[in-house]
Amino acid sequence: MRSLGFGQWRKGMLRAVLLVILCLAPLQAVQAAPAAQDDAPRPLLLGEFGNANLAEGESVQYALTTPMDGTYTVAFTADGNAADFVLTLVDADGNTLYDDVLQTNTVIDLTAGDYVLTFTAQAAAELAFLVGIEAGSMSTDAEAPGELFNGAVFITENVTEPLFATLTLEQSSYPQKALILVQGGDGDVYEVEVTSENFDYYYTSTDESEILQFVSEGGAYDLKVTPTSGGASLQISVFLSGPAPTLEVGVETPGELNSAEDTNTYQFTIGEPGTMVAVTANADADASLTLNAGLTPDAQSWSAYSYAGEPAVLEFIAPVAGVYYVTVQTDAEAGGAYTILVEEKGKAATLPLNEPTQGSVASGSRTGYVFEVSEPEQFVIVALAGPADEDLDLNISYYVNGEQVASDSAASSSGREVAGLFAEEPGTILVDVNGSWTDGADFTILAFTGPLTDLMGEGATPDAEAATTNSEGQIEQWAVAAEASSEYTDDSWSARQVTGAADTPEAGDIGTAWAAASADVEAETLVLVYAQPVNPTGIEIYESYNPGAVARIEVLDPNTDDWVVVWEGVADTAGEEIAVFRPQLTPVDFATDQVRLTIDEPLIPGWNEIDAVKLIGVAE
After folding, report:
1. Is the pTM above the cut of 0.70?
2. Measuring CA to CA, which residue among 66, 27, 55 is closest to residue 121?
């Protein structure tokens, strides 16, 4: 019996991994008390970090499922002494397989199945550990990749060409960070690339960082590791951070950052939508702090920054009830201690439509409102009328099912602002009046919504004349509206350049086609809207620059509001200067007026520009 893989981690590397995971914040301040021995064990995934602070005599239990027979290692990862704990491991039949002092690497042969691990403290101490196994495979054949999973440690030598694997992460009930630790010998440098099923792309080079991290709740990922220097040895270890520590609303919590590169992540729960939330962080020394908050651990939906010696105060209106995440960073190279406090400041007032409303904002503060858009395809306009000599800023955000879809802001040097956006479907609008740059001011605010035809007349919307009938009796039509995950500008190379007939006359980087904000970074999406719903039989995608990056085509099922894949693969237009991509579509049994394209930007170097998209189909 041996501890393969785990003994080969360079000294301090596990601790370095711990410094980038979500659970970095002081456990005694934010973690719930350990479960009593008769409570249900905490679920633990293979490779997931478990953490607890225990008083002498206290115990904590974890439930673990092993996927295969093999030799497993329980690796103690805290700074203290593993011998401060006794580990008892029991199988599903109640048989005790281990009952002894915890080792730095406790090696146990296990079969596939369910187990309960009980840690009992012999002295007050911090427990931090994970369970892993040397297992998995990688392949030099991208078409027949190897298999890796959370908790796996893969070791090989003499790497001379790229290695591929399908990385499968177990589903978890909470988002956490996947941490891919890639190590080589002296002089070995590897590029590490991970691509998700939704074409999210993550990259690192081991001469910059040996840890590639991304947020996941489980799923399958494509992993590629390429030697760029050396290649004598390679070890790949797959960890999961575990859930972020929880902040109790209204309770100030101490924390500490070890350096300017560290990030501490917390979670907290808001019970009602429309709650006004304030997060305040104070540094113990004259350091600046940065706060980011959102609905996922890596989100930056709301941000705040403090100057040295001042608190960082982040305020926002919660669009939904549920779990939120906040991260803390510092500019102090040596890190430092801080405190963090989450408070609920009441509910945002409901802003009536088409009715001027009087309001006020205090100096350095914010006033929030919320209202609902109940009809689809509505323009939303909010006008703020404050004193001309006061600096008020206005921001509006549009949410559907808790996800921010669009936003707009106005920030002149006066108190008179207008913001607007287009809401394709019913949702929630959050309004923020920011008084950070004023001594306090009264204002009048007005919100109104309406369809395009009400605001601009019947001639404002394209009609079905864009649709024609071909010789086979099928309807052919160009998109009348488009929205992209990103766009180079809001005019040239914007999503609206994809609407209408193809008008880019030649191959090249020309502003009459859509282009993403950045080239070769991540997968992008284009949503096209058509005047007449049809059962799709064909599609023509006019690619005017660096063709071949279209990776998936979906159509919207109006009966379920689900996107249905009608083509997925590698386009045959790669290498051409200008092309029309005409893939064969999988038949569906409904009519649709929306198409979504996924463009795999990293696949084809340079901007992958699309001029127009023609939808072909049969009317119901």
Report:
1. no
2. 55
* pLDDT of the residue at 14: 43
- Residue 544 phi, psi (nearest 5): -105, -10
Owner of token pair 């992460």: 169
C-alpha span between 501 and 292 (Å, rounded): 42
Distance separating alpha carbons of residues 369 and 356, to the nearest angstrom: 13
3 state SS for 361-385: EECCCEEEEEEEECCCCEEEEEEEE
How is residue 562 written in tokens?
């689900």
Pairing of β 219-229 and β 163-169: antiparallel
Please give the Cα distance from 227 to 591 (Å, whole number).
49
* DSSP string for 443-468: EEEEEEEE-HHHHH-GGGS--GGGEE
Beta strands in 289-402 (DSSP E): 289-294, 302-305, 312-317, 322-330, 336-347, 349-350, 357-362, 366-373, 378-385, 393-400
What the chain holds in terms of domains, given with CATH numbers, is 6-133 (2.60.120.380), 253-347 (2.60.120.380), 349-456 (2.60.120.380), 464-618 (2.60.120.260)
Q: Which of 562, 574, 567 is nearest to 604 (CA)?
A: 574
Positive or negative CA dihedral for 351, 356, 362, 364?
Answer: positive
3-state secondary structure of 8: helix
- Token pair of 267, please? 């979670």
Per-residue CA distances from 291 to 309, 314, 408 (Å) = 15, 7, 21
Q: How many helices (H) and strands (E) does the chain have?
A: 3, 44
Q: 578 near 506, Cβ under 8 Å?
A: yes
Cα–Cα distance between 40 and 61 in angstroms, integer? Answer: 8
529, HSE (Cβ side, Cα atoms, 13 Å): 14
CB atoms within 10 A of CB 133: 23
- Cβ atoms of 275 and 344 within 8 Å: the answer is yes
Q: pLDDT tens digit string along 502-527?
A: 999 899 999 999 999 999 989 999 99
Q: What is the pLDDT of residue 10?
A: 35
Q: State yes or no: pLDDT of 234 exceeds 90.
A: yes
